[in-house]
Design brief:
Blueprint: H1 2-32, E1 38-39, H2 45-60, H3 64-75, E2 79-82, E3 91-96, E4 100-106, H4 107-110, H5 124-146, H6 152-169, H7 176-203
Parallel strand pairs: 2-4
Antiparallel strand pairs: 1-2, 3-4
Helix pairs in contact: 2-3, 5-6, 5-7, 6-7
């Protein structure tokens, strides 16, 4: 009986120590994402509706797999909102002590109110499309890290390829100005990613997320 009791106490200590380490990892992940983070779920209606709208746009562009992957990430509790995510980042993947693995989205990227380039002579609809494409591409980028790809340059290559494939596929269903503006939005996202990639290479940082997009003129 004493042996069983000792084993029970030892097991309880091990479990307690494990969850204490998990809490430390969670705190570390929260700090790396700027603090005040919260899980993305239906308890936050505005963020939840914005997330549903993002997935809807992706499905409309033929990106059902990415929409489904993001939803599965959310269902696992690994997709979080970071109101204070710094460094110009739209999203970030964090692995804390190999115990807590999360993708954080900056709140004002998910729930966008103002235009990204209010002084740019580009229609609001095109700017909103750019915002959605850039956020989707950034999440695609961070999902590569979540799935185990560590090399940053290779991750940027995949992200830029995703944009290019989107540009080749979607405009076939569009016409006139709608097609022209969609192509502007994708080209701007590509240039934004290329600039972030260059910044990351120069600084040695894991990611150069995500400064002002270079001014891409509307095609004639």
């Amino acid at each position: 009986m004493r042996t069983v009791l000792k084993l029970g106490v030892a097991a309880a200590i091990v479990v307690s120590a494990y969850w204490a380490i998990v809490r430390v990892a969670e705190a570390k992940a929260n700090a790396l994402a700027g603090g005040h983070t919260f899980v993305l779920d239906q308890k936050s209606p505005e963020e939840w509706e914005a997330f549903a709208a993002l997935r809807g746009r992706l499905r409309g562009w033929g990106e059902s797999d990415l929409a489904a992957t993001l939803f599965r990430l959310q269902e696992r509790g690994d997709l979080w909102v970071a109101p204070d995510l710094a460094g110009g980042r739209s999203a970030i993947y964090v692995n804390a002590l190999n115990l807590v693995r999360r993708v954080f989205i900056r709140r004002d990227e998910l729930v966008a109110h103002g235009l990204p380039f209010p002084d740019l002579d580009v229609p609001e609809s095109a700017q909103r499309t750019f915002e959605t494409i850039r956020l989707a591409g950034t999440l695609f980028h961070e999902l590569q890290h979540y799935d185990g790809l560590e090399d940053e340059d290779a991750t940027y290559q995949r992200e830029i390829r995703w944009y290019k494939e989107l540009r080749e596929r979607v405009p076939e269903r569009l016409g006139g100005d709608e097609r022209r503006l969609f192509e502007w939005a994708v080209d701007s996202a590509i240039k934004s990613a290329a600039a972030a990639r260059e910044k990351a290479e120069e600084s040695g940082l894991e990611s150069g997320r995500r400064g002002q997009v270079p001014n891409v003129a509307l095609p004639g």
